[in-house]
Amino acid sequence: MKYMHVLLFVVLMSSSRKDPSKETSDVEGNISISKDWIKVDSAYAEFRSKNKDDFNLFEKYDVVTNEEDAAKIGEIILLSIYGQRIYQSRPYSVELRDGIWIIEGSLNADKGGTPYIEIRKRDCKIMKISHCK
């Protein structure tokens, strides 16, 4: 019985060895795939250079177009950071300055502090977030 276990172990170990010729083909396959990706990437870059206007949508159209949308987006983001207490700072003052929506909560007399967030109109990028006291 002992010899059978040893024989089985030897057979399994010898069958699990990798064939060196297969390893070479795997490496060559990876090189081939890499070359294909380089071709795809360069073709995509060429396509983008010829069609620049189609890829600059943020420069053509604003993402956050009005005060109501800016307030909703700001409130969602502030809620995820500061929690339910931001509802005490309603109503929000919303102002557009130099392409940036500035959303600021109202100061509640009982508790100090107001949430403040700046959102870029063009691409909805958050420029600044704070909770002032």
Task: Give an account of the 3D structure.
The longest helix has 31 residues, at 20-50. This protein is of the alpha+beta class. The chain contains 5 helices and 4 strands; from the N terminus they run αααααββββ. The chain has helices at residues 2-16, 20-50, 52-55, 57-60, 67-82, and strands at residues 93-97, 100-104, 114-120, 126-132. A hairpin with a 2-residue loop joins strand 1 (93-97) and strand 2. The mean pLDDT is 74. 53% of the residues lie in helices and 18% in strands. The radius of gyration is 30 Å and the shape is elongated. The chain folds into 2 domains: 23-55; 67-132. The chain has a 4-stranded antiparallel β-sheet with strand order 1-2-3-4, covered by helices on one side.
